[in-house]
Fold these 2 entries.
Entry 1:
Amino acid sequence: ESACITLDNGFGNTGSCESAITFLNGEKGILHYRGYPIEQLAEKSVFQEVAYLLYYGELPSQSELNLFKQKVASYSSLPQGIYNIIDQFPLEAHPMGVVSAAVSALSAFYPEFINPTSLSQADIDRAIAQLMGQIKIIIAYFFRRTQSQAPVPSDPSLIYAADFLNMLQGGEGNPIDPEVADALDTLLILHADHEQNCSTSTVRVIGSSKANIFATVSGGIDALWGQLHGGANQAVLEMLNEIQNNGGDYQKYLHKAKDKNDPFRLMGFGHRVYKNFDPRAKIIKNACDSVLQKLGIHDPLLDIARGLEEQALKDPYFIERHLYPNVDFYSGIIYQALGIPANMFTTMFAMGRMPGWLSQWKEMRASEATRIARPRQVYIGATARDYVAINQR
Ligand code: SDX
């Protein structure tokens, strides 16, 4: 089964693609990256190895992985102009807006990337290393600014997730717990790609016009920001906190979620493709237990989340609509336990999804079948009519 999509709205084939990157089976809850089950990758691999697999199609040898890690680590700083741009943002700015703007602004500092049709293989290899390397700098640098803390330089001796956490929380005398870094590394693996979701389709649509890679990825970041998509992980935590602040009565919120007159939806529940369970949610739920136990944290929000899931899975409304926890339902509880603030959860999703976006962009631009995305419509407006002079209206 090839994951083939059509870039149309069902009214005429205005563009389609085949993809060999990620396979989903929504009925069976199957997710494979380049044929490898997500369960095996989450257990046995590391994020940078998965990024290599997605981008190049095969698991790397040790020397290939070492070289890839060196390339990513070589992008451990930003042009001064990007730091200056980030410094202009108010401290209360949402980090997703900062990341999107900073990534787009990179196009001003790397003009060699402006014309995607003239990229060499070396440029293609550089794109993933540079954007994986620089997105974590952007996120960490803005966070440290909001905390009035000096930036912590990237440490190439650390694995990707540990380096990020060290830049976020590290510095003198505050070593990163390897267990914590491993937990974040696993979350990054689970978010790395997901076929033609909203933000990845956005990347393909923007990329199909031959916009530069920074503008293309920045568009994906903006699409991910929405609370129906990547923004759901922050919305889940806000929902759980609201339930806790209202006495923990999650039944009331289940009722609200079913009330068609109430715009409230159970955040972290439901999925356009998975109609039984999201395999990532299962892995994250288990990781939740082990991470909180290792850190000696008892988070009452986890009890509320478990209660919500247990009740929803017995409720005909949710059962009839195949609504189950998705990747965002438990992830925020782990991010919070790792000391990451809620308004940064979606930037974690963006950091994880970066290799997926770039792999799909690379596949799209290499395909001869790619044409500019141009969805059509069914016109339901006024029929043809003549102009009326203003003094006749
Ligand atoms: C991600 O596509 C991907 O792969 C995305 C993603 C990825 O890795 O890239 O997996 C990441 O975005 C996960 C989804 C995160 N979003 C949320 O958790 C937000 C809450 N979920 C819903 O908004 C919704 O379930 C969506 C957006 C995820 C899916 O929307 P759909 O497929 O358009 O579902 P729908 O609106 O057609 O819903 C079908 C029915 C409707 O009721 P009826 O009109 O049939 O009576 O189910 C209801 C909906 O009202 N419904 C919900 C619900 N989700 C759907 N009711 C209450 N709570 C919900 N969460």
Entry 2:
Amino acid sequence: MEYANLLLEKNGAVAVLTINRPKALNALNSDTVTELSTALDELGRDSSVKAVILTGSGEKAFIAGADISQMKDFNCMQARRFAQLGHSVFRKIELMPQPVIAAINGFALGGGCELAMACDIRIAAENAKFGQPEVTLGLTAGFGGTQRLPRLVGAGLASELLFTGDIIDVNEAYRIGLVNKIYPLDTLMEEAMKLAKKISSRAPVAVQLTKSAIQRGVNMDIDSAQAYEAEIFGLTFSTQDQIEGCSAFLEKRKPAFEGK
Ligand code: CAA
């Protein structure tokens, strides 16, 4: 499928999804969020895709936020719908089967930081900058920032970032656990691809069930979450990959996983 504001490429089992509005620093208008929804559905259905990399076009921005020129004239109803659209589409990232890696190549502000936080793993370039500057515009964060930032970095740090609108550099983002790794900008995509390929080489059903346990379990009480983990652990013992993985270990060879 062709998209106006996205690029979707496949490299073996890895899909690279690029938000492509570089003139607006990849700002998210409703058309782009709607296209993202369609692309995520397409990828979620594609069993040949084992991992996804999400990034922004150009060398300056991952995503500089929701599109301020579109939002400026919203009424309350339109703003609420826009937030609900963002919520439902970003949640698809958490609930789709494949792991999604955010490769953050510059500004990740507002909706851009929120989109990165909805991804399973965040790696960033040395020029990346993060923040939730909505209060400087007279708004609150609207694509999940008030909920995911406290879950990721704790309520105290999240409150400071959300109340001040301060923008932090990549070293501070790394220090507070917002990103896992920092790379030079010119090697970021190569490193993202290496990570995505490593994940793709693991038993696909086990990886997908692990994602499900993390994403669903994080919102459950510990007993329900452990019961869910026991279920999915049991499920892996109905797969060929479990037989292959354990046999390969005992036979001292590399496993050949087929994803079934
Ligand atoms: N929406 C719309 N357009 C944007 C944009 C945004 N979020 N961010 C940047 N742009 C546009 C600029 O208007 C500019 O367009 P023109 O060339 O047509 O003037 C172009 O992108 C380049 O931007 P700048 O000239 O501003 O570039 P800069 O290097 O001087 O500054 C920046 C970069 C610090 C990221 C600055 O662009 C900026 O502060 N952007 C807005 C960041 C922001 O506030 N994001 C939060 C949005 S609200 C939100 O996201 C709500 C939510 O949770 C749902």
